[in-house]
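We emphasize that the prediction below concerns an isolated chain of 127 residues; any contacts that depend on oligomerization or on bound cofactors are therefore not represented. The input was used exactly as deposited, without trimming of termini.
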Amino acid sequence: MQIIATDKAPQAIGPYSQAIVVDGILYTSGQIALNPEGELIDGGVADQTRQVLNNLSAVLEEAGGTLNDVIKTTIFLANMEDFVRVNEVYEEFFGDHRPARSTVAVKTLPKEVLVEIDCIAKPGISL
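Result of the prediction step, given as a token string:
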């Protein structure tokens, strides 16, 4: 097991790692709209989603991968009415790459953010 940590994404706000690699598979912790300094970014769900995906990209990069190596994502939304807007930003980052995905509505998220995303990837495979 290898712990992945980068200062290009916010540090964990609890007793967990940004990501772990086991048998060549990367499992990220959920990322929220904190900048690398740990400050919550201003803006709506689109701005928060961009920051979340930038954070995930930084963690993937530290592990030797990119968003093209992502196998599956899970999106947690504070409001399912934001689904379409999150999809628009998600597509900006993933383009034609279509990893498997689950999206769930939750009652609340850490720091009252609007979106949290985690992923599973295999760095270096570029699906």
